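Researcher: Let's walk through a ligand-bound prediction step by step. First, I give you the protein sequence. Second, the SMILES string for coenzyme A. Third, you return the three-dimensional complex as structure tokens. Ready?
Model: Ready.
Researcher: Here are steps one and two:
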Amino acid sequence: MYIGDGNDGVKESPNIIPAAILLSSQSDLPAIAELAGVIWRACYPGIISSEQIEFMLARMYALDTLCAEVCSQGVRFYRLLVEDRFVGFASLGPTAAADVLKLHKLYVRPELHGCGLGSLLLKHCEQEARRSGARRLILAVNKRNTRAQAAYQRNGFAVVDSIVTDIGGGFVMDDFVMAKDLLSS
Ligand SMILES: CC(C)(COP(=O)(O)OP(=O)(O)OC[C@H]1O[C@@H](n2cnc3c(N)ncnc32)[C@H](O)[C@@H]1OP(=O)(O)O)[C@@H](O)C(=O)NCCC(=O)NCCS
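Model: Step three, the predicted complex:
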């Protein structure tokens, strides 16, 4: 029984979910933006307003924004495939500190939550960060997004800061910053 990760072989697991994780190219970005819309509109009501969901989707998932991240900001996107179906994604990018990478995005289709796929994708990003020479991985998560916080905590992340960021349009991102030292695992 296994969850398979396309890059580093099969993993022992209580579930039988053959999954692959692939580095994305620019041609994958429209599908990533589309899947983000599906997941955000299903998972974020109750965490942020529908107006803020649409505002942030338009701002963060415009193709120009995603292309700039990939082409000029050193951000890498990874696609999660289950039985060849594109069901989730993550993105990882540099920070001002050479040995710290930021997990910008981690998303799995809602009907597949609770199967360990988010953790699989997260572990893959940690491994990629280590391969890049990073010693620490950081992320920001909405303070009301307790499910994601629990998933990060299960995977060894801890809250290190609390930040409120004005994103324009009358909206703020009210986040915890979480971090994990990669050398210790
Ligand atoms: C955050 C998110 C990626 C987590 O994904 P997930 O697959 O549900 O999370 P996990 O991999 O940690 O699995 C969670 C559950 O599966 C269970 N599980 C079952 N089989 C498992 C396995 N083989 N391995 C690991 N966990 C397994 C865990 O015990 C856990 O159960 P619990 O929640 O009852 O404790 C997902 O909830 C998501 O996409 N949310 C919406 C977007 C979002 O908020 N993203 C984060 C932005 S900062």
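Researcher: And what stands out?
Model: The mean pLDDT is 92. The radius of gyration is 16 Å.
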